[in-house]
Amino acid sequence: MATSLADIRARLQQQETRSSGSSSGGGDNAIFAHWNIKEGETATIRFLPDGDTKNDFFWVERAMIRLPFQGIKGQADSKPVQVQVPCVEMWGESCPILAEVRTWFKDKSLEDMGRKYWKKRSYLFQGFVRENPMQEDTTPENPIRRFVISPQIFNLIKSALLDPDMVELPTDYTQGLDFRVVKTTKGGYSDYSTSNWARRESALTSTETAAIEQYGLFNLADFLPKRPDETALKVMKEMFEASVDGQPYDAEKWGSYFRPAGVQIANAQPRESAPATQTAPAPAPTVEATPEPVAVEVPTEATAPVEDAKPSSQRAEDILAMIRNRQK
Question: What's 134's domain CATH number?
Answer without folding.
Answer: 3.90.198.10
